[in-house]
Amino acid sequence: MLTSAHAFSGLGVTDLAAAKEFYGGKLGLVVEENPAGLTLQLPGGSSLFVYQSPSFEPAGYTVLNFEVADITTAATELRLAGIELERYEGLPHDEAGIVRGKSVGEGPDIAWFRDPSGNILSILQN
């Protein structure tokens, strides 16, 4: 039924201007403005629609993952851009804020951070 339609994901935010600065200015993504919000051009060719929502509340889970070649470098670049990595109780974060899952055989190396609206994003290295 929907196999021939174009599909895309959407992400709510509280402030489109802050989202544009964060995703374009700090993360370096291509951000296109449109009458209904923003379109983020994601690595790999996909896109994400970002819209302002008056009833927005951030999810308690990761909504966008960025696979990176070197998580240590990516974490340093985020920190230099003024983005703080999240630390979750009960997880073994290293001094940089990265959970080294590969070293203990439990998934990828991963670190989380938030956008200005509180959406949880991650960088991960498989």
UniProtKB/TrEMBL annotation:
Residues 4-126 form the VOC domain. This is VOC family protein. It comes from Gryllotalpicola daejeonensis.
